[in-house]
């Protein structure tokens, strides 16, 4: 009889945001402070984004985080003399090993130049290349830029819009574009004639997708927890060959190994999934007489 052990950590709780910043509408110039407070066990870590991207690492943004005596974690972002281009959707995300919680709100910074007053505008790519450069770039009369069939490594970069109003006042706004290729998994399958005690292995190869990549396995929809490459109590071994390849192997098949095995690959663009069923045929001696032995064959397959 196979036996296994597992560690249960009592008291773990997912993060909860107990305080979040509010939506603000301001003019350029004043200092702004955004704060989030989160609880959870273990103590969560708080990360900040602006319009879905990590906050720039420069002197304009000062990020602080500390844990007071009562245990909640407090994180804040301070912006000195806020600029128009620093407006947008700010989000704080509290993360620990149990889960994640997020809060977001809009910081609207209204400058002297408003969209309705623009009389001239132009788009620049990487500082000096005026758009459109090719047929994939479309600039509409309302100064909206559309890029069709975006390409990784070609369309990445900084886009800037320069606008002028009737009083010849100018303003600029920039956007950082990072085009990522989503992951793609090469299909794999288990043999259909596997029996008790045999060895089996499959390889999950992420054939496409920009790093960083997170590759992991599930059995019947449950993530396989690994300690030193072993799935505790399951007789399953997981090995990472490189950042694009993971191998699942079983040294001696048991009926309990039957089920649906899923490889998932995730990057910042998307999640890719491939599932393969594993059927284990069991063979055991049932009865015998003076004639040839009789056998009973069992098959166990789990489908979600």
Automatic annotation (TrEMBL):
Q: Please state the span of the N-terminal signal peptide per the UniProt entry.
A: none
State a single Gene Ontology molecular function. cell-cell adhesion mediator activity
UniProt membrane topology term? Single-pass membrane protein
| Pfam families named among the record's database cross-references | I-set, Ig_3
Asked whether the UniProt record includes Transmembrane helix among its keywords, one would answer yes
Chief location bin? membrane
What does the UniProt keyword field contain?
Cell adhesion, Disulfide bond, Immunoglobulin domain, Membrane, Repeat, Signal, Transmembrane, Transmembrane helix
Q: Which GO terms describe its cellular component?
A: axon; plasma membrane
**SMART domains this protein is in?**
IG (SM00409), IGc2 (SM00408)
- Is the Coiled coil keyword given for this protein? no
CDD domains named in the record: IgI_4_Dscam (cd20956)
Superkingdom per UniProt:
Eukaryota
In this chain the Ig-like domain maps to: 15-108, 122-172, 183-279
The listed locations are: Membrane
Q: Which GO terms describe its biological process?
A: axon guidance; dendrite self-avoidance; homophilic cell adhesion via plasma membrane adhesion molecules
PANTHER family for this protein: BASIGIN RELATED, FASCICLIN-2
What is this protein called in UniProt?
A: Ig-like domain-containing protein
Please report the organism this UniProt entry assigns to the protein: Timema bartmani
């Amino acid at each position: 009889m196979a036996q296994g052990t597992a560690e249960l950590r009592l008291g773990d709780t997912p993060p909860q945001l107990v305080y979040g910043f509010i939506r603000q509408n301001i003019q350029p110039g004043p200092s702004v402070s955004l704060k989030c407070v989160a609880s959870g066990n273990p103590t969560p870590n708080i990360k900040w984004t602006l319009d879905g991207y990590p906050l720039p690492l420069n002197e304009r943004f000062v990020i602080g985080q500390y844990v007071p005596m009562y245990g909640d974690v407090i994180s804040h972002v301070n912006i000195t003399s806020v600029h128009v281009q620093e407006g947008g959707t700010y989000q704080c995300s509290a993360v620990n090993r149990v889960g994640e919680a997020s809060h977001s709100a809009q910081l609207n910074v209204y400058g002297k130049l408003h969209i309705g007053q623009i009389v001239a505008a132009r788009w620049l790519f990487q500082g000096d290349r005026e758009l459109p450069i090719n047929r994939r770039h479309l600039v509409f009369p309302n100064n909206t830029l559309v890029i069709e069939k975006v390409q990784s490594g070609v369309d990445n970069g900084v886009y800037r819009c320069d606008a002028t109003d009737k009083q010849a006042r100018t303003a600029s706004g920039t956007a950082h574009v990072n085009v990522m290729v989503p992951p793609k998994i090469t299909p794999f399958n288990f043999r259909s004639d596997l029996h008790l005690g045999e060895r089996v292995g499959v390889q999950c190869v992420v054939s496409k997708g920009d790093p960083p990549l997170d590759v992991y396995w599930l059995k019947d929809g449950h993530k396989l927890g690994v300690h030193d490459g072993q799935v505790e109590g399951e007789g399953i071994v997981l090995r990472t060959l490189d950042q694009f390849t993971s191998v699942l192997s079983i040294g001696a098949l048991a009926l309990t190994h039957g089920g649906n095995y899923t490889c998932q690959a995730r990057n910042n663009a998307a999640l890719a999934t491939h599932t393969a069923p594993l059927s284990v045929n069991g063979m055991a001696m049932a009865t015998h007489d003076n004639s040839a032995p009789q056998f009973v064959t069992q098959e166990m397959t789990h489908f979600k």
